[in-house]
Amino acid sequence: xxxxxKLPEDFLMxxxxxxxxxxxxxxxxxxxxxxxxxxxxxxGRYTAEPASDxxxxxxxxxxxxxxxxxxxxxxxxxxxxxxxxxxGEVNQKGVDYYHQVxxxxxxxxxxxxxxxxxxxxxxxxxxxxxxxxxxxxxxFVDYAKFCFDEFDEVYYWSTFNEIYPAATNQxxxxxxPPEIKFDLSKTITALHNMMYAHAQAVNIFKxxxxxxxxxxxxxxEPKYPASDSPEDIHAAELDDALSVKFLMDATxxxxxxxxxxxxxxxxxxxxxxxxxxxxxDFVEMKKAANRNDYLGINxxxxxxxxxxxDESQMFYNTxxxxxxxxxxxxxxxxxxxxxDLPRTDWDWLIYPEGIYDLLVRIKKDYPNYQKIYITENGLxxxxxxxxxxxxxxxxxxxxxGYFNYISKAIDEGxxxxxxxxxxxxxxxxxxxxxxxxxxxxxxxxxTQKRYPKESAYWYKLVSExxxxx
Length: 469
Ligand code: BG6
Hints:
Layout: E1 12-16, H1 19-22, H2 35-43, H3 54-67, E2 72-76, H4 79-82, H5 92-108, E3 111-117, H6 123-127, H7 134-150, E4 156-161, H8 163-171, H9 184-207, E5 213-219, E6 223-225, H10 230-252, H11 258-270, H12 281-289, E7 294-298, E8 303-306, E9 313-315, E10 326-329, E11 333-336, H13 353-365, E12 372-376, H14 393-411, E13 416-422, E14 441-444, E15 449-452, H15 454-465
Parallel strand pairs: 1-2, 1-13, 2-3, 3-4, 4-5, 5-7, 6-8, 7-12, 12-13
Antiparallel strand pairs: 8-11, 9-10, 10-11, 14-15
Helix pairs in contact: 3-5, 7-9, 8-9, 9-10, 9-12, 10-11, 13-14
6-O-phosphono-beta-D-glucopyranose is lined by residues 18, 21, 161-162, 165, 219, 298, 376, 380, 422, 429-432, 436.
InterPro entries: 6P-beta-galactosidase (IPR005928), GH (IPR017853), GH_1_N_CS (IPR033132), Glyco_hydro_1 (IPR001360), Glyco_hydro_1_AS (IPR018120)
Active site: 376 (nucleophile)
Keywords: Glycosidase, Hydrolase
């Protein structure tokens, strides 16, 4: 019998959520609109009302955290609850709401781990160009500072959730509003502007007298060449430069390395476009580069990349119909579907070794990283609910696989301090609606009743014993 792996005694076990995906209450108590509100209605899709009704159910969810030994709740603040227009007048009811949530966390000994921006820029600023508009960087930084000043109950701050998907889903895959496809110039400009905004927020935090830690949450997905051919090796390198190195360089170097920029310029040239980056931004970014207290990593998948130089093509599987995803970007590559590996109904390859490769690489390439929290990982699945019982063995297998590789990386000296499952409870998914469930707790979206899945009991045991069973 093989010995079960252990996690460090102080390893934090958390559950992750995001305001727009759980709160509901989209237009009450003075909350301002976000682009998603109208976008989803216009598309005739599901909406995020009432989602998991966290706006009202938060005492139930926080109590569940306590009951199931979930030490920390990763959540985000909805920018437009605080500043309905994104700037200017403060909505006191929104401020009060988050104070109540943090008080409830305190009551149960649950640590809030708070993201400032999770895909929900207020509509007024979004319509004005979102992070393509440099004016909005200032509004974001003011909002971040407001949060630092106001919510001293919060110790852990993340500036942004997933800068890469935020920009690519808006301007490359086009699955988020404003649904622009294959615009590499907009994509990379938005990435840079958000990294610059992150740096400014970190510097304000570090130069203020705030108690706590600050970091950023990146979605990092390992890229492997689809074959040994030099073309495929180079395609994987290009994809990695845009989706990993561009962000990690900005975060931990405060500039883009020569190699990263050479890849970015090659991608831009292949798409007949260019960008301009103000060199002055690097002053602020370099100052922030050694000030990140932690790195949050969201990782679900890994990719195998094949050279691709024809016109870009994209079909994003939002239906759960396996085998429908197509991802080909001109001048970067094609992310192929390896049929020999397990994958979800949404075509997300399941490859737990990937998280190990990623962690080991970060330690090597960015030795000033301090520490890491896995801020999202989990299995999106069509759970079956029978008489209040949800047997989600596939999710447990998925989690066990990832935990084992995280623990292997820890054993090899990578400083991983905690893990947040995506998601705490079932939530609204931006592009998939409600049938792709991730939660430890099943939500009946009609009654808003919560039911622990089998995985919730597994997670509790792991948390209690720090043993990966
Ligand atoms: C991450 C996001 O990209 O993945 C979450 O931070 C998101 O907001 C999660 O819900 C899962 O993605 P999806 O598309 O399966 O809901």
